[in-house]
Design goal:
Layout lengths: L4 H13 L5 E2 L1 H8 L3 H13 L3 E2 L6 E3 L1 H23 L9 H7 L5 H10 L25 E2 L8 E7 L4 H9 L7 E7 L6 E5 L2 E5 L1 H4 L2 E4 L1
Antiparallel strand pairs: 1-3, 2-3, 4-9, 5-6, 5-9, 6-7, 7-8
Helix pairs in contact: 1-2, 1-4, 2-3, 4-5
Length: 217
């Protein structure tokens, strides 16, 4: 039986919140979704019945391999849709999230497989995040936050920890797009803001921004 829209929203939240041991607390999940604790508890009991999580009272949830696969398949639909909107419909990367939120709940596997084929089977979405394959497998990325880079380092902007519309617009206004080479020129001791060079021009980024930008050397 296919997951409902509400269940898919919970699955996607679990995907984003789990730690390295596939654990997350009910409280974290409740806050992330802005849903009351009793409702979250009840949903996780249903997930436990489906073997998507291991639920024990007063303990963190453990998301099972089956649960992670289901969650990854929801994320796959979302990220494929974002890529289609950018690559084939010329949407800006800051304008696709809300539309993808709606289309990710389409249940037809054939629809998304065809989208994948038309896009020539992309590995990453417009924000540099890996797209799970049809089995829910996902590519591991070895990236670091720009905030952890030192003066003089040259790195490539590869992905984001946050892809909300406001932040994407902020990056677009600074002409800071994926695959841009970044040279770290200066880091302020006071607030850790960073002066960088991109495309032969200088930009100043706040600590809040550099923590959300993921790069590779």
């Amino acid at each position: 039986m296919k997951a409902t829209l509400t269940e898919e929203n919970y699955l996607k939240a679990l995907f984003h919140l789990v730690d390295s041991e596939n654990k997350v607390t009910i409280n974290e999940l409740s806050k992330f979704l802005n849903v009351k604790m009793p409702s979250t508890n009840n949903m996780m009991k249903k997930f436990a019945e489906k073997n998507w999580v291991i639920y024990e009272t007063y303990k963190p949830l453990t998301v099972t391999s089956s649960g992670m696969r289901e969650a990854a398949l929801v994320v796959r639909k979302h990220r494929l849709t974002e890529m289609f909107l950018v690559q084939k419909m010329n949407f800006g990367w800051e304008n696709v999230h809300e539309i993808a939120e709606q289309l990710e709940h389409v249940h037809s596997q054939v629809f998304f497989d065809k989208m994948d084929e038309i896009l020539d089977f992309p590995k990453y979405d417009p924000h540099g995040e890996p797209i799970p394959d049809k089995k829910g497998n996902i590519i591991a990325q070895d990236l670091l936050q720009l905030s952890n880079c030192a003066v003089g380092e040259r790195v490539i902007f590869t992905s984001l920890t946050l892809s909300d519309d406001g932040f994407l617009t902020y990056l677009t206004d600074k002409n800071l797009l994926l695959n841009t080479e970044i040279l770290v020129l200066k880091i302020e001791n006071f607030d850790k803001s960073m002066t960088i060079e991109i495309n032969n021009s200088k930009e100043i980024l706040s600590r809040q921004a550099t923590e959300k930008i993921l790069v590779k050397k």
